[in-house]
């Protein structure tokens, strides 16, 4: 059972469909007990970091998430929630990794990175059977640079972390559920880690 | 930079995909989920599903087919048509859409753009702009383009409007140049360059695609991130897989499937 954390995000259904497509059974919940018992946890997210972290704190899910020992995958804003801070939110985030997310600077060609970009420096089980230079679909206005936890690099004016990993915590800045068959492969890899 | 994106637009009326010339004379093309799946398999980068009668009929988009599309494809899709409140948009996102595109409701109530961006993030809010050249040559926005008898030209320059909606939080602009729409004579590069000069978010070209070279021309513009077309794909004149091969041959970076 994969638990998709109900962050109040608008795209829960897409994530659910994406996971079910690779054979996972999925429940959407913000109940700390259910999250704790799940074989794997997905933190989705679109929209504003502040709203999402407030919702997570309100239900006490923040402490459960940070203490998870099963595989956890944060997607897009869900990846950012694993960090320490975001320029768009005054609140502290989950602080699984000490990462700060900022808006695109002057080197970025647009205010929003939207579309299909290549990812590289891929290793580990999450990227199994995914080629270097594969295209993934991104749609985000905040990002973090390269750091000790970077696992997967992309570029938008400058290099940034397309993915991060620390122990059982994974984050991807792109949307695997919207990245065609290659993205579906990544979800499959994640689900297999939970079995 | 991400790749240039090829977007297929599916105009929907009464639960079917239809096509028309300059918004008139609609003919049924096929089923919505079937066509979505077909284009996704051929390597389209994104789909826009446009409920063309929703806005003139003053209703929101039909959610049943939004869900069907979400279940059928694993690429992003945007839904347009009569979304005039946060509540309308919320239902569309909950049914699996990645973006909403608003056009005439944004003209009626510009603060809607701000509300949507605040709630769902700029990346999920697309503003569609129907633009026509006025007699003095300046591009102006057109409201209610979905039905010709209801269309009205607004005395506001397209560039001013595009600047305004970006300030309000629009994350992407679809510029539909109405004069070139349906002509198959190519995108209106001049208007795109003009709007591109004030556009800091992704700009999608729409209206006028007739052959492969038109995509090469429009992707030659730095300011254009994506090109949208409908009938050339629906009538089989351009196959998206072959289009992408041609674009790669011309050294335009696109996603190859």
List keywords for this structure.
heterodimer, A: 195 residues, alpha/beta, Rossmann fold, 6-stranded mixed sheet, 13 strands, 28% strand, B: 257 residues, TIM Barrel, globular
Spatial separation of the terminal alpha carbons of chain B: 19 Å
Mean pLDDT of chain B: 91
Total count of strands of chain A: 13
The tally of beta strands of chain B, per DSSP, is 12
Sheet with the most strands, sense and barrel status of chain B: 8 strands, parallel, barrel
Radius of gyration of chain A: 15 Å
Number of domains of chain B: 1
Oligomerization category of the chains in this entry:
heterodimer
Shape of chain A: globular
CATH topology of chain A: Rossmann fold
Rg from alpha-carbon coordinates of chain B: 17 Å
Helical amount of chain B: 25-40%
- The helix/strand order of chain B is EEEHEHEHEHHEEEHEHEHEHH
At the third CATH level, what is the topology name of chain B? TIM Barrel
Mean pLDDT of chain A: 94
CATH homologous superfamily of chain B - what is it?
Answer: Aldolase class I
Instruction: Please give the order of strands in the largest beta sheet of chain A.
Output: 2-1-3-4-13-12
Share of residues in strands of chain B: 25-35%
Second rung of CATH, namely the architecture of chain B: Alpha-Beta Barrel
| Structure classification of chain B | alpha/beta
Give your account of this protein's structure.
The complex is a heterodimer of chains A (195) and B (257). In chain A, strands 2-1-3-4-13-12 form a six-stranded mixed β-sheet. Chain A has a three-stranded mixed β-sheet with strand order 5-6-9, with no helix packed on it. Chain A has helices at residues 12-21, 32-37, 49-58, 61-66, 77-81, 180-193; strands spanning 2-5, 26-29, 40-43, 72-75, 85-86, 100-103, 113-119, 134-140, 142-143, 153-156, 158-161, 163-166, 169-172. Helix content of chain A is 26%, strand content 28%. The model of chain A has no long low-confidence stretch (mean pLDDT 94). Chain A is an alpha/beta fold and 195 residues long. Chain A has a single domain, classed as Class I glutamine amidotransferase (GATase) domain (Rossmann fold, 3-Layer(aba) Sandwich), CATH 3.40.50.880. Chain A is built from six helices and 13 strands. Chain B has a single domain (5-249), classed as Aldolase class I (TIM Barrel), CATH 3.20.20.70. Chain B is 33% helix and 28% strand. In chain B, strands 1-4-5-6-7-10-11-12 form an eight-stranded parallel β-barrel, surrounded by six helices. In chain B, helix 7 (189-196) links the parallel strand 10 (172-177) and strand 11. In chain B, helix 1 runs parallel beside helix 2. Chain B is globular and about 45 Å long. Chain B starts with a strand and ends in an 8-residue tail after the last helix. The model of chain B has no long low-confidence stretch (mean pLDDT 91). The A-B interface holds A 10-14, 17-18, 21, 46-48, 77, 109-117, 135, 137-141, 156, 175, 177-181, 183-184 and B 1-3, 5, 40, 45, 67, 70-71, 74-76, 90, 93-96, 98-99, 118-124, 171-172, 200-202, 225-226, 255, 257.
């Amino acid at each position: 059972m994969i638990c998709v954390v109900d962050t109040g995000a608008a795209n829960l259904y897409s994530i659910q469909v994406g996971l079910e497509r690779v054979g996972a059974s999925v429940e959407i919940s913000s109940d700390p007990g259910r999250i704790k018992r799940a074989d794997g946890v997905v933190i989705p997210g679109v929209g504003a970091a502040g709203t999402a972290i407030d919702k997570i704190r309100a239900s006490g899910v923040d402490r459960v998430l940070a203490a998870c020992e099963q595989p956890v995958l944060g997607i897009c804003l869900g990846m950012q929630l694993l960090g320490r801070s975001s320029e768009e939110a005054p609140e502290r985030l989950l602080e699984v990794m000490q990462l700060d997310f900022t808006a695109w600077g002057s080197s970025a060609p647009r205010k929003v990175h939207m579309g299909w970009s290549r990812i590289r420096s891929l290793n580990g089980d999450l990227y199994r059977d995914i080629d270097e230079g594969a295209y993934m679909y991104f749609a985000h206005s905040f990002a973090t640079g390269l750091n000790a936890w970077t696992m997967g690099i992309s570029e938008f004016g400058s290099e940034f972390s397309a993915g991060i990993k620390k122990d059982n915590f994974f984050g991807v800045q792109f949307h695997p559920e919207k990245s065609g068959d290659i993205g579906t492969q990544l979800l499959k890899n994640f689900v297999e880690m939970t079995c | 930079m991400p790749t240039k994106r090829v977007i297929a637009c599916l105009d929907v009326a009464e639960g079917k995909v239809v096509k028309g010339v300059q918004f008139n004379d609609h003919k049924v093309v096929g089923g919505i989920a079937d066509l979505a799946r077909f284009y996704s398999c051929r390597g389209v980068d994104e789909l826009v599903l446009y409920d063309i009668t929703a806005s003139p009929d003053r209703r929101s988009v039909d959610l049943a087919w939004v869900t069907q599309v979400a279940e059928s494809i694993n690429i992003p899709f945007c839904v347009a048509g009569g979304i005039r409140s946060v509540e309308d948009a919320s239902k569309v996102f909950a049914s699996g859409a990645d973006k909403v595109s608003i056009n005439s409701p944004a003209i009626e109530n510009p603060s809607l753009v701000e509300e949507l961006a605040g709630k769902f993030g700029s990346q999920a809010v697309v503003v569609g702009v129907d633009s026509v050249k006025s007699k003095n040559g300046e591009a102006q926005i057109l409201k209610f383009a979905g039905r010709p008898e209801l269309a009205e030209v607004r005395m506001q320059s397209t560039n001013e409007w595009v600047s305004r909606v970006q300030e309000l939080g629009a994350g992407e602009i679809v510029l539909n140049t109405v004069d070139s729409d349906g002509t198959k004579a190519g995108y209106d590069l001049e208007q795109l360059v003009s709007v591109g000069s004030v556009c800091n978010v992704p700009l999608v070209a729409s209206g006028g695609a007739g052959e492969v070279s038109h995509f090469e021309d429009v992707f030659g513009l730095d300011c254009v991130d994506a090109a949208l077309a409908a009938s050339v794909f629906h009538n089989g004149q351009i196959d998206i897989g072959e289009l992408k091969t041609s674009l790669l041959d011309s050294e335009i970076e696109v996603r190859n499937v």
